[in-house]
Amino acid sequence: MANQLIPTHVFGLNGTQKGCLYFLDDATFLYPAGHNVVIQTVDQKQQKIIAGTPDTYGITALALSPSKKIVAIAERAPPFMLGSERRASSASSESRSSVIPTDARSMEGAESEGRTISPDTKGPIISLYETVTLKKKKVLAGTEFVASTREYVSLCFSSDGRSIVAQAGGPDWNLVVWGLEKSKVVASVKSSNQLAEVYQVLYCPADASLVTVVGDGFAKHFKLTETAFRQIATEIVKRESNWLWHTWLCEPGEHDEKDRDNKDPAIYVSDTGELVYVEGGEVISTLLPDNSDGPPETELTIYYSKGFICGGSGGKISFYEKTEEKDVKEGFKKVCSFKVDNANSKIRGLALSPSEELLVCTLDNNQLASVLLQQKDTFKPGEVPKEVTIQAFHTDSITGLDVCIRKPIIVTCSMDRSVRVWNYQDRQCEVVKFFQEEAFSVALHPTGFYALVGFTDKLRFMNLLIDDIRICKEIGIKGCQECVFSNGGQYFAAVHVNVIQIFSTYTCENVGNLRGHSGKVRSIWWSADDTTIVSAGADGALYEWRMKDFKRNRENVMKGCIYTSVTSVTGSRSFFAVGSDRKLKELDENQVIKVFPSAIMLTQIELPDNSRLLFAATEIGTMRTYRFPLTGEYQEVQASTAPITRVRVSHDANLLACVGEDGILSLFDVKDREKAIVSVGLRREKEALGFADEVLITKSDLDDMRQHIQELEERVKELESENEYQLRLKDMAANERVKALTEQYEQQLQGAQERHDKLLQLKNQEGIDMEQKQMKSEEKHILQMKELEEQWQKKMMAEVESLCTQLRYASLGREKDVLNESWEEKHANVVQGHERVVQELTEEFETKLSEENTLREQVQEDLKQANRDFEEIKHQTEEDTDREIEDLKEKYEAKLVQEKEIVLRLKGENGLLKKKFNEYQKDMEEQKGEIKALFEQKKELYQTLAYFERDINGLKKDIIERDETIGEKEKRIYELKRKTQELEKVKFVLDYKIKDLKHTIEPREFELQTAKSQIWNMEKELERAHNGNTRKQLTIAELKLKLDGFTREVADIRRRNFDARYAIKNLQHDFYELTQLIEDPVGLKEAVKELNEKYVSNKVTMTPVDDDLLAEGARQRDYLERTVDSLQRKLSKDSDSSHKNHLRIMRENVTLIKELNELRRELKVMKLTQQKGGQRKDGEGDSLQLGAILQGELDDLKMKFDQERTKDQRIRKASH
Questions:
Q1: Where does this protein have compositionally biased stretches of type Low complexity (predicted)?
Q2: Where among 917, 936, 963 does a domain terminate?
Q3: What is the pLDDT of residues 298-350, one digit of tens each?
Q4: What is the pTM of this model?
Q5: What's the domain range around 289?
Q6: Angle subtended by helix axes 1005-1075 and 1081-1095, to nearest 10
């Protein structure tokens, strides 16, 4: 039977184990998690899992070989009584599979050696695995030296990797060395007494024969021979302290390269926080604890190239480096200190990557932290740097687990008061939310948008947003231990002690209660069609409930058994349940069909639809896979070291998730081959619909995100413009620099060329001078030769003529020979001197020429080098500029793409929200229909209130009639206003004409008196108009008083209408409370009596209205109507007469204007006819006098018009 569960990912770790963290390379490290060893990449996305050995009770120690190819895992042996019971059960049950693979990934090709533990094996075991292939190489077990103990507390490989030393636990505390070639114990010694606890054992990396052990009150050094241990006396042994940890400060093989006098150094950690530096067993110095920034306790240390690293309580990490400074007596100086966690937790494991760039540590609160060390010098003591990354693992027991259909997420809750959402596709924690209360249960809606969490005080309905968990509704159920959504998602069930309450998901309304259990309900299972619910309780009862009427359909009660989990299959009549009796049972309504005993208690079971596997969790942290239909055959894999509290299977039955009390979330791939054959069509349908990408987000968060995107876009634009500006500046600077360098090199080249030309010209000139000197010296020499020959010939002729004798001739011949010899000798000397001078000059000029050529070549070479440098600088500048441009371009393009993706994602989310909003609107319409039906039931109540409505309608009619009357009066007032405006227009024309007259008229005495008489008549007309306006004002005042009376009457009617509506509203509210007691006849009767006493006790008697009062009201109404009509007629007459008066005044004004124009023409003629100056002056004086008089009269007329306009304005204000 092939293994059906393959571990794929583990969220969490064993925070209680110390020093169990190692780096395999710069990209991967390993640590224990549950009953597995996890090999994880640095980016925390990929994991390889080494499953624990069956029949063992957890991992106690780890060790990694120096070559990093082998990992040793020490596992705890089961209790002796339980182990024998399990072996007996294993021997008696023939149907069970007795071979349990330990390496699920290499299951087909793994060797049979080490797959299981022999029943005769005693004590703990050590398993050796290859870190690359994950194959088990060997199992070290069965030695009599550790038969009396259950565990190894510490392991260590030798530097050559040929042996491993293991420190067994109490009570014997035996130290054992295993030889890996023969898998036998090489030597053994008792390292401590029964009272002193041992914490750690180490091989010296530089000496494979030296083993050190530390514990309470001792630190021992042992020399390992071929078959025994020999203890070495050292100074550290004499110091009585409780040593918690120690670390060798050297690398493997480093001892051979050092001088023999230089002992291997080590650091010992005491429980007081002291760090003792030891070389060769002798104490060199002691580093006292620093109490300035936290408690002094140091938990462990590790070695690195410059010194060592300490990890202690409070999440504090310190770096110590070796120094030669004289003022540092200890030899080590603290160079860096920081925290990785603010939760005041202790560091239990440290590991440094081979490149010493990444530090990983484990904490006792089950957290894994990593920190990049490139900027460790900038870290501040007592603070958590931003480079620290902490995994969001649970820190306490996980109490709730659930999965959904439409999303690849898992929701868990824990006693650490947190709710976490995990994505099992991306292998990460998406959302973490902490609360004030502890959480006991959690349920996830099939859509993945909603969750139920049961806290100590309430059950809370929550929305799962994109980055948060928001509380939507609180339900008053305290300490809800179990809550489950229906498969369709329309209902959810919550347990309140022994009652199961059913709620509607979309209204959170309690639609029913399932009562029947006498003990706490421990498990709930919904059928696939949500028509039935199966529940199991601590009272030993299994009930099947109908959702139609919330009644029991079937039951099976077994007293004395506390059920912990129940499940069933759709369409089957059987239940499957596990409980405290350690049995897996298949039950019907009246009988137990099958029973499969177990040596350990089963805590949870899961049976997916269309699957041939049943999954069961145990109290020791293992997962069992039973073949379905049940035959008793099962397989078992390790998951946790504590009891498993919850198990869930994904909707497609391809993933199993389980959680335990140790805070570990384990994921398994389900390999069900029969399921793959049976349900091919179903899988194809499920594959056609992938997981949903939609998420929930609030409108405020969306607006903030949009605003942030807008700000980022603006920032990008600003950066683009700034970068363009900077690039232009850089281009300008580069161009100027290139231009300056070009001019400089051109100048240098031009100067070198000029020097070269000068030197060449100088050389040519010196050559010409040398040739001229040589020609002159040759000519001089020829002339001297000719002169000497002529002198010689003359002397010869003279001698021949003067001497006739032979002796003389002979003597002259000899003298000639002597002279010839001397001349030849002189000639040769002259020629040699000349040649020597020519050669010296030639050599001198050739030397100068070679120097000039060398200088010229050097200048040319400098020029070429300068050109090359210039080209190189130009090329590098261009490359740097292009690289910066490309980097900025890629950076901002990446940001732009990211922002576009965010915008697209938000658009999709907005579409989903709109869709959900439409669905909610449909639901609201349905609820409105229900409310309408309820209102139809209340028609009888409305009939009793009909007479109130009739009174209201009558009052409304009266109000409408009076509004019409008021409207007619307002129309009349509007006409008066319009006529007043026309008068103002006429007045404006008159004002304009008067202004014209002031500038143009020249009065005359006769015409002025005529104008005065006309003005007097106009004043009388204005007085009559003023009297008419006064009467109109009185009439308007009376109308306003009547209007105020009508307004007060309307307000009184409206108040009475409001009182009636308020009484109706109170009656509706009381009637709604009455309907809540529809299921309680007694309470309903009492409520009806109270309602009757409240509203019907005072009988309303309809008394008829007195006829005399009606007649008086009609008479008053007729009188008012006649008064209003007469006032309207009088107002129209007054307005007509006023209009006629204004028209008459306008006609008289026109006549006056004509007469003024005639006077103006006559005055002009008079001016033309006047001839004399005196006459002209007299005429001008008369004209001025006449104009002043006319101007005064016109001013009086204008003042009267202003008074009339003021009165008209007062009339209009009074009418309003």
A1: 89-98
A2: 963
A3: 889 999 988 999 998 888 999 999 887 776 767 788 888 898 888 788 999 99
A4: 0.60
A5: 240-254+261-393
A6: 150
